[in-house]
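Proteins fold reproducibly. Consider a sample protein:
=====
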Amino acid sequence: MTSLWSRIIDLLLPPRCICCGKIVGGTDGLCADCFNEVSFITKPYCAKCGHPFDEAPGGRQMLCGACLRKTRTPFRLSRSALRYDEFSKNMLLSFKFMDKTENAPVFAKWLKLAGTDIFKEGVDLIVPVPLHFTRLLKRRYNQSALIARELGKLTGIKVDYTSVIRHRRTKPQVQFSGHARISNVKNAFSVKHPERLKNKRVVLIDDVMTTGSTLKECALAMKKAGVKSVDTLTVARVC
């Protein structure tokens, strides 16, 4: 019965490409032309942070220079589905600021695939990066929470929307670069319900990783609350 209704809905409201709006034959979200424009991140990439390599000798898993130099990091693993370029930027800005919330299920499918390594290691809880309540009221939705909800449906993993909060209102990170981004989000997050996170393996969801400052501060707050591990999954990342 469900499949019948799905076919009827597809006839009345056929799936469309999330970029150009063309009718598409499946539920992958992109037409053939737009699919060829998207830069998906595939192996080889850094075994820890997921930064893509141009090539990896002998197909071996390797660490990038940044991960080799770092002695401590709050993340177990980090993965992203796309390279952040002009094409993915326009797609994500439409989702984030122009109410293209119907894109969330497609992004979640991409994250499930991009996060294969993470899910193999084990995940107990999905947590979206929270917005400050004033920004949530203005935007009306948290784009990361929408993706997390759809990812939870696909994986069967519980999503926690309320344990982590952004208690300090910060300026948009796009206004800053380098160390200024770190200062902008320093100590901006806290954990309201630490008992829900203690000893959990958490995957943290956001739309874009630029320098990783926001994700890092959020992860540090959760580590203080006693989480076992924190991984990150983002739709796109600056490479």
Remarks:
- The chain has two domains: 1-36, 38-237.
